[in-house]
Amino acid sequence: MILPAVDAPPRAPVLLGVDLGGTKLQLALGDAEGRPLRARRRPTEPSGDPAADVARIAEDARALLAEAGVAACDVSAIGVSVPGPFDPDTGMVLRPPNLPGWDAVPLRAWLEDRFGCPVHLENDANAAALAEWRFGAGRGAQHFVYLTMSTGVGGGLVLGGRLYRGVRAGAGELGHVPIEWQGDVCSCGLRGCAEAYLGGASLARRLREVTPPESRVARLAGGREAATAVHLVEAAKQGDPFALAEMARYAHYLARLLSVTVFALAPEVIALGTIPTAAGEALVFEPVRRQLGAHLWPRVASGLRIVPAELGDALASHAALAAAREAFRARDERHAS
Predict the structure, then answer these.
(1) Measured between alpha carbons, how far is 227 from 211 in angstroms, rounded to an integer?
(2) Which residues are CB-contacts of 257 (< 8 A; sequence separation ≥ 6)?
(3) Which helix (DSSP H) or strand (DSSP E) does residue 82 occupy?
């Protein structure tokens, strides 16, 4: 007797995310909602040969798939969280400062050739914003701003429940809003950018110049020449007068940046990551909220929440899978139309 053919049940979508940082490479497998199921991490270790670097990333991805018992052909979409600059239309990575030799690298095409599924490249700050919006501090908000202050200042905007990229994917560059017209020189070459006052690299340069040798900042760093934001925050938490004054200055400039952000975008939630999260409520969040309260219209400020980012060490996996989910969503929208 010949039994009728039975269609196999459809496989659950599997997403593969790659967070390509300057120092660390994070790969993650996730479900269709972007929840991480399995991950692996290693130093990025760029060789100067982008083709070899991408081949190694693909090998790592296949090893992760093998560990999970997933065939490469079962991956529904791949997302890559990448540092700028890159071209979102062509999928070309355009000479990121921390990836030597990566000049006009067709990363999307190379990965699509290897895995045969849609690949989406996303600015790393945008991917982090999506991750915090779906799984972290922005859950439930329709209008959400994410800002991270690590080496520089990055931002991402979720407006009306969708990531907002703007022309040539240039939206969200809040680190280069001018907050002092004739202020300090920024790494981008302009003067007075928020990044020149709030980014970790700029802060470290300032500390090397102005830290008193007798301050707790200098003692924690083993000399002011080695002082960083980490030492500044710790010294402020210990009550060092110089560190407290510097953190007050930091909060003042952060409030300036956020006042522009709130008047321009009227978000429900602003999540702050890295330096502000490490500094905490008393040093950053409370003074920033207080200063904003004096400089915003009540109807604009009403209901606004300024909160620490929540995902912490889990951010890289979530961000990479958020980029993959964008590829998966775009594919479904194309099929629906």
Answers:
(1) 8
(2) 147, 174, 177, 179, 194, 198
(3) strand 75-82
Does 249 share its domain with 192?
A: yes
Q: For residue 4, what pLDDT band results from cuts at 50, 70 and 90?
A: very low
- Mean pLDDT, the chain, rounded, equals 92
Clarify whether residues 180 and 291 are in a common domain.
yes
Q: Is residue 87 part of a domain?
A: yes
Which tokens belong to 290? Answer: 């207080």
**The pLDDT of residue 22:** 82
Q: Are residues 82 and 171 in the same domain?
A: no
Structural tokens at position 78: 């791949």
- Give the CA distances from residue 14 to residues 9, 80, 108, 244, 329, in Å, rounded to whole numbers and listed in that order: 15, 15, 18, 48, 13
Give mean pLDDT, residues 41-61.
Answer: 96
For the cut 70, the answer to whether the pLDDT of residue 336 exceeds it is no
CB distance 18 to 320 below 8 Å: yes
- State whether 282 and 325 are in the same domain: no
Q: Are residues 205 and 245 in the same domain?
A: yes
Residue type at 175 in one-letter notation: G
